[in-house]
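User: What would this chain look like folded?
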Amino acid sequence: MNLGTPSPTHGSWYEIRVQGGLDRRWTAWLDGMSVTPDADGTTLIQGQVTDQPALHGLLSRLRDLGLPLISVNRADHSGTPDDTHPHH
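Assistant: Here's the prediction, encoded as structure tokens.
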């Protein structure tokens, strides 16, 4: 039965922003996620995550680094967040 859970072969695209600078060499340690440091002192980590346990494992690694989480967004394949809310 499929309850809308992504298949293990595809997963979901996530964009995670943390406070602090990580350089691109962390990609391998973060399961191949793309690591992009920004000039504002934050880092964007993005890529496919196979399932929720893998996402929680990734978040645990970031916690272990002591980097405060700013946001975690699931996005569709075009990189647009699934749930867009207008800002007022």
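The first strand starts at residue 12 and ends at 19. If you want, I can go into more detail on any region.
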